[in-house]
Amino acid sequence: MKTRYSKNLMYYNQLDSKIDRIYHDYLSVSGFSLTTMWILYSAYTSERTPTQSEICETWRCSPQTINSALKVLEKKEIVQLNFAAGNRKNKYIHLTDRGMELCEQLVEPLIQAENRAFSVLTVEEQENLIALFQKYSDALDNEIQLHRKGTNYDTEAN
C-alpha cells in the first residue's frame, strides 16, 4: 500500500535539496567536496582546534568519510593532523598557512553570504527555524531508527 505523501513534506524536501545544491554549486569551481568544506569550515571557525571525532559528530559524517577527506586535505598541505594526547586514533585538525589562505578565499565568503541570508529573518524567526528544524530532524531520526530495528531488508531485491 502506497503511503500518502503530503505536499508540504514534498516542498520541504525540495527546499532541503535546493540548499544542498546551493552549497554544491558554490564548491563546484573549487574542486572540493561538501565534506571537505565542512572540515575547513569547522577548522576555520572553531575557537579551538577541532578533532576528527568532533567533526564526525558535528557534521554527522562517518569516520571513514572524514578520514578520506582529511587525507586529501593533508596531501594538498591544507591541513596538518596531530595525534591527541594519549590517543593514537583521534587527531587534531590544524590549518596550515596554505589552508588558512584557502579558507579566506572559500569559507569566509560563504560565511558572509550565510550571515547576510540569515539576517533577512528576524531573530525570532531564526530561533523558530532552528527549533522547528531540530524538532523535525530529531523526530525523523527517531522514526528511521525505529524502522531499522523492526525491519529486515530483503537484500536480494537490492
How would you sum up this structure, described in words?
With 158 residues, the protein is mainly alpha-helical. It has a single domain (7-119), classed as Orthogonal Bundle (Arc Repressor Mutant, subunit A). The protein is 66% helix and 9% strand. It has 6 helices and 2 strands. Strands 1-2 form a two-stranded antiparallel sheet. α2 (34-45) packs across α5. It is globular. The two termini are 19 Å apart. The mean pLDDT is 92.
Report a brief summary of the structure:
With 158 residues, the chain is mainly alpha-helical.
SSE map:
Elements: H1 7-28, H2 34-45, H3 52-59, H4 63-75, E1 79-84, E2 87-95, H5 97-118, H6 123-150
Antiparallel strand pairs: 1-2
Helix pairs in contact: 2-5
The strands making up the biggest β-sheet line up spatially as 1-2
Kindly provide the radius of gyration, computed on alpha-carbon positions and rounded to a whole number of angstroms.
19 Å
What is the tally of beta strands?
2
Beta percentage is: 5-15%
Please, how many helices?
6
Return the domain count: 1
Distance between the first and last residues' Cα: 19 Å
CATH architecture call: Orthogonal Bundle
**What is the succession of H and E elements?**
HHHHEEHH
Give the CATH class. Mainly Alpha
Integer average pLDDT: 92
| Fraction in helix | 55-70%
Q: What structural class is derived from the secondary structure elements? A: mainly alpha
Quaternary: single chain
Superfamily at the CATH H level?
Answer: Winged helix-like DNA-binding domain superfamily/Winged helix DNA-binding domain
Main sheet record: 2 strands, antiparallel
